[in-house]
Amino acid sequence: MTDNPQSHVRVEDGVLRIAVATAEHGTSLSPAGMEQGIAALREAGPEIGAVLLVGEGANFCAGGNVHGFASADDRGAHLLDIANLFHDFIREIAAVDVPVVAAVHGWAAGAGMSIVLHADIALGGPATKLRAAYPSIGFTPDGGMSWTLPRVVGIARAREIILTDAVIGADEAVRTGLLSRLVADGEIQSEALRLARTLAHGPTQAYAGIRRLVSDSMHRSLSEQLDVEAAAISASATSPTGVEGVDAFVEKRRPDWSLGRN
């Protein structure tokens, strides 16, 4: 991966930064960002400890390129291609073993809101707004919104948010769990990068296990989850990360999490 003006991805201090939208086409979802993001996520090795999702422009991501939809010769085929590309990106985000942080400034609408819902930690600011946006152009959701949103806010609230195309302000987004917390509008990306860097140099093996446990919990009973947790914490105890964490605690020193990477 090279850091050049045409690249939507770059690696900085263990953080894989992916621009999901740019100022082009009104900060709509970037196909190039999706393609490059997919490739970067698939190629990511142990040098990558966190993923940072950003928008480059006035917004995080204002949705799909509606003008592009309108000008397509075959709108159905065009939307299917876009959705499949977008969903390949979402699948890679869901499958990655490291924490995913989103820096959500301005609008996160349509596809942008869908992306936010897949982040482990999403930071916004007082001016951040989220909106399903699909009904406004007569569309149904993509990007997994119909799957993630009910799991965050409940089925009834998810139906209301999508059907009424509600604009969700920053404070409400935090209250409902769509955003993790707010920082000053001008500090969203810098704080998200600081957080991603911190996570990138943390116990990455433990983070991978945590992500799997949480994401898979929806498909298990409590008893099944307890069995999986017992097996996971037992495996953690003999992993390089777990050994180093316990030894560092007993020896009253800061752990060297690099020992848990391969």
From TrEMBL:
Annotated CDD domains: crotonase-like
Highest taxon in the source lineage: Bacteria
Main location: other
Subcellular location: Peroxisome
Keywords for this protein: Fatty acid metabolism, Isomerase, Lipid metabolism, Peroxisome
Stored PROSITE patterns: ENOYL_COA_HYDRATASE (PS00166)
Pfam families named among the record's database cross-references: ECH_1
SUPFAM superfamilies with a match to the protein in the record: ClpP/crotonase
Catalytic reactions on record: a 4-saturated-(3S)-3-hydroxyacyl-CoA = a (3E)-enoyl-CoA + H2O; a (3S)-3-hydroxyacyl-CoA = a (2E)-enoyl-CoA + H2O
Annotated family: Belongs to the enoyl-CoA hydratase/isomerase family.
PANTHER family the record matches: ENOYL-COA DELTA ISOMERASE 2, PTHR43684
General function of this protein: Could possibly oxidize fatty acids using specific components.
Protein name: Enoyl-CoA hydratase-related protein
